[in-house]
Amino acid sequence: MKYKYFVVLILSGFFLNSCQKDNQTISPDSTAIEAGKGRLKINLSGSDYADIKSNKSEIQNQEIELGSGIKAFVSLERIDRQSTVVKRAANRMATAVEKGLPNETYYGILTYNGNSPSVKTLQVGGANQSIDLAPGTHEVILYSRGLKNETTLNTINWGPKGFYDVSAKDGAFMATTKTLQIKAGEETAINATLIHQFSEININVKLPSTVATAVTGSISTSKINYKPFENPTVDFQSDGNQNFTLVAAGATASGKVIVGGNTPRDLTLNVGGKTITVPNVRVIPGERYNLNINLVSDNEIIKVPTGTHTPGESIVLYEKDLSSTNGFEIDITDLDNSFAVEVNGKQVFTADIASNGIDNQFEYHDMQFQGRETGELVAYQNKAYPANIKFADGSVWGSNGVSSIWSMAHTNWNKPTVKLVVDGNGNVKLFASKTAQGELFEVVAVTGETGRNTSRLDGSREYSYNVTSQFNTVNWVKSGTNEVKISMISYDTNRFNGILSLKSN
Predict the structure, then answer these.
(1) Of 22, 30, 132, 237, whose CB has the highest number of CB atoms within 10 Å?
(2) Who has greater pLDDT, 111 or 474?
(3) Quick one: which of 179, 93, 92, 189 has its CA closest to 136?
(4) Residue among 26, 152, 164 nearest 93 (CA)
């Protein structure tokens, strides 16, 4: 069986108990039991692995030096919570499904009474959590892959006595069987707690231009087994290393693996002859992760050059001729607190400022993140540089729960604070986060914003200002070279830490 293509978040380890009542029990909102049949009522709950909660981490970061001018910036981030710990209901015959699995989770029940198997797809939180069956002895399997909006759980390959070819079903699951008696006209309850056994890791590798695109790897995994209808036990995966190959597309390579068990594991990648070992990858069964590995060459990293810089001067951070079919992007993890980008002689951003009267009207090209706060206006030599961008929802940095841009510095390249994208048609978009390593939101140019503020750098002088700005479309040559220049106006503190990546698709 090839396990690296298994679908997300396999759930297993069902602990099943059943009980019967002497008389038929139908809740007021239930439909009547089908004539000549009995009802199997399902009480379902979910649980995490309680013994490894100390290992939980939203993001795990590592920086690995590979030599030859290449660094690997690694982050493992949980992207989906599949359940929360819940306590079993005191009433085992409770008609409501216990919370713990999200309502989007579909699950299936398979039953076999010696004649032919039967299957039904149910949804956690749905009104109907039961199935009517012919009287007699039934073998039952409850299962779930934890997929949201999955409606094909009843597409199963059947053997003479039940499903057996689980390897052919993409997204194989784990389950435990239970034998119980169904009596005509009566309701029998089956209580099941789902315990996760597998987790999914989406591996995304960003490749520098100096590294070949062939990416293979391996990760350790644990063997999980279950008992289906026909076999004593069936093993999923095996103890040891699971090998995989990532699919390369341009400057990225990606793929997914499913791993069993809950112990920290090592992952190894071979990228163009270079070996990367990521130690102690901690994953929680039942949850999904993005493992992002950003391979960066030293000449792609953009920093403020050393030396003394005069306030108000433009500092050149980067200047190169670039070639790609679809532009480039700049990821920034540390900024204080503006920058400008020029492509083939045209600025990607323009701000028109009028401060303290029309005589002081001027134009500049830095995307200025801060400057609205009292006493934080940047100004030099009778020129004020107020903030000229904001989030599309109107929020701004340093106000109403949004952190100041200079306070968000971190070292995780996979979660940039600011991202500038110039596509192959010369269109420009800017994105930024509201908290360190937070989600990116679109940023827009300020139009017609007025204000009055005291400069923190020009003798506490008070400035009034009016700012109108815009992003400009630049000319990107897909089949030739393009001159790209990154700069920033020097302030009292100059911080910039970014990488520039070419886009080929």
Answers:
(1) 237
(2) 474
(3) 179
(4) 26
Chain-centroid distance of CA 415 in Å reads 10
Sequence letter at residue 406: W
Q: Give the integer Cα–Cα distance in Å for 362 and 467.
A: 10
Backbone angles phi, psi at 61, to 5 degrees: -115, 145
Contact by Cβ (8 Å): 282, 57: yes
Q: How confident is the model at residue 155 (pLDDT cuts 50, 70, 90)?
A: very low
Alpha carbon distance 461, 418 (integer Å): 30
Residue 36, burial from CB neighbour count under 10 angstroms (0-12, 13-18, 19+): exposed
**Which token pair is 296?**
């960066």
**Cα distance between residue 392 and residue 446, in whole Å:** 10
Q: What is the pLDDT of residue 42?
A: 86
Beta bridge partners of 107: 122
Task: Identify the three-state secondary structure at position 27.
Answer: coil
Tally the C-alpha atoms within 13 A of residue 96's C-alpha that lie toward its C-beta: 8
Tell me, what amino acid is at 52?
I
Q: Looking at beta carbons, which pairs linking 95-100 to residues 24 or more positions away fall under 8 Å?
A: 95/27, 95/30, 95/41, 95/129, 97/42, 97/43, 97/44, 97/45, 97/124, 97/125, 97/126, 97/129, 98/43, 98/44, 98/45, 98/46, 99/45, 100/45, 100/46, 100/47
Distances (CA, A) of 433 to 2, 331, 396: 39, 12, 11
209 DSSP assignment: T
| Residue 252 · residue 39 · CB < 8 Å | no
* Whole-Å CA distances, 390 to 20, 405, 410, 473: 63, 12, 21, 19
Cβ distance 162 to 117 under 8 Å?
yes
Q: Cβ distance 387 to 338 under 8 Å?
A: no
Backbone φ/ψ region at 180: left (φ over 0), alpha (ψ -120 to 50), beta: beta
Determine the pLDDT at residue 455. Answer: 83
More confident residue, 216 or 61: 216
pLDDT at 26 (0 to 100): 34
> pLDDT-derived band of residue 127, with 50, 70 and 90 as boundaries?
confident
**Residue 341's closest CA among 316, 304, 313, 363?**
316
Q: Report residue 155 as tokens.
A: 């597409």
Q: Is the peptide bond before 290 cis (omega within 30 degrees of 0)?
A: no
What's the mean per-residue pLDDT of the chain?
76
Q: Which two tokens stand for residue 88?
A: 């079993």
Pairing of strands 38-47, 187-196: parallel
